[in-house]
Amino acid sequence: MPSFSRGSVPQNYYDITVAKLLKQPEPQYLFGRWWLDAVGAALPIPAGIGLDGRQAPQAGAPFTNYDADRLELARSLPSELMAISRDFGKTPGNTIRINRPAYANTTYTLASRQVMTSTPISTSPIGVSTEQTSLTLLRYAGPYDTVNSRVAPFAIESFDANMGVHSASDDIGNQLARDFHRFIDSVHVTLAEAGAAVYPDGMSADNDATTAGSFPLTLEEISRTWQNMTEQNLPRFADGKLGIALTPKQIKQLFHDPETLQQSTYHPEFNLLFPNYFRTVSNFHIFECTTLLSPLNSSSVAVDHGIAFSPGAFMGGMGRAPKVAATTDDNYGEQVKVIWLADLAFGLADSRFLRSVRSA
Question: Are 95 and 317 in contact (CB under 8 A)?
Answer without folding.
Answer: no
